[in-house]
Amino acid sequence: MNGPTLAQRLAIRGRPAGRSVMKQRWSRLLFLHWRVDPDLLRPLLPAGLHLDLHEGAAWLGVVPFLMERVRPVLLPAVPGLSWFLELNVRIYVHDDAGVPGVWFLSLDCNQPVAVELARRLFLLPYQHARMRCGGTLADTRYHCLRRGESEEAVFEYGPAGEPRTAEPGTLEFFLLERYALFSTGRNGRIYQGLVHHPPYRWAEAKCDRWSTLPVKWDGLPEPQGKPESALWVEQVDVQIFPLRAITAPPA
Predict the structure, then answer these.
(1) What is the pTM for the complete model shown?
(2) What is the CATH number of domain 22-245?
């Protein structure tokens, strides 16, 4: 199946119809990516979703960041609940209509309430983890240990250039400009969730230490060598829209 057109990749950045249900800020984002054999990833997808390729290549991402001011619309942020850490392992997909988005293999999080709510409300594979983050904006130190694992994933990173927006058609645009997520329920239906935020302002990342352990925790071979792409984003304010089914239940 052909992948999304450039027009579809641009259109998904528009604000979705209807009302958002949550607001949050993502900050100190590190996007690490490796090129991966598509045949390794295709069996992970349900029928109705397809790998989204850039110039014939599939990409696997490891993305640690801070979640801040997470709250339902019209309610204030709550200390102890609205600030936490998240690290996701992700691949890139599109649906039968050509809508590009993200398929999460896992999302580690150190806020137990957020883990349970995200599993139930957004049908995402959140995992309980012990996590901590320190250092400065220019030199972040980030640690993650998933429940049941014995070795800690550690990242040390910061910006290595001036922020700018991604040009359509580039690898950076393909990796960063993602405004849809897909998940599946117990009924086998595919669901789509949309987010809205300004285009990322990204810089090349200096990454003195990184880990592929989260990929191993998900049962996949760990990528070898340095990340082929390492990007940094200071922060972005995000609106979250309700999950909706895009396929009928299997017969």
Answers:
(1) 0.96
(2) 2.40.400.10
